[in-house]
Design brief:
This protein has a single domain, classed as ANL, C-terminal domain (GMP Synthetase, Chain A, domain 3, 2-Layer Sandwich), CATH 3.30.300.30. By secondary structure, the chain is α+β, with helices and mostly antiparallel strands.
Length: about 90
């Protein structure tokens, strides 16, 4: 700024910290959207856990199994919530 003040705008990336691990929600979202039943996915942090919102999608249990097979345990969301649309 012309007056010399600095504005802190936050992180330039989407990285969050969950249980001491640095997590990129986009990494989890990419695995979710690789499944044919998922058109869109959003992963957020809530109470030191990850929650995945997907739309439309099939079985949330099957999606968690897919994530568990492809990602480390700390990247697997505590819950997968199916919504009609995102």
């Amino acid at each position: 700024r012309p007056d010399g003040a600095l504005d802190f705008l936050g992180r330039a990336d989407q990285q969050i910290k969950i249980r001491g691990f640095r997590v990129e929600p986009g990494e989890v979202e990419a695995v979710l959207t690789s499944d044919a039943s998922v058109a869109r996915a959003v992963v957020v942090a809530r109470d030191n856990s990850l929650i995945a919102y997907v739309a439309p999608a099939g079985d949330p249990v099957a999606l968690r199994a897919l994530l568990a097979a492809r990602l480390p345990e700390y990247l697997v969301p505590a819950a997968v919530v199916v919504l009609p649309e995102l």
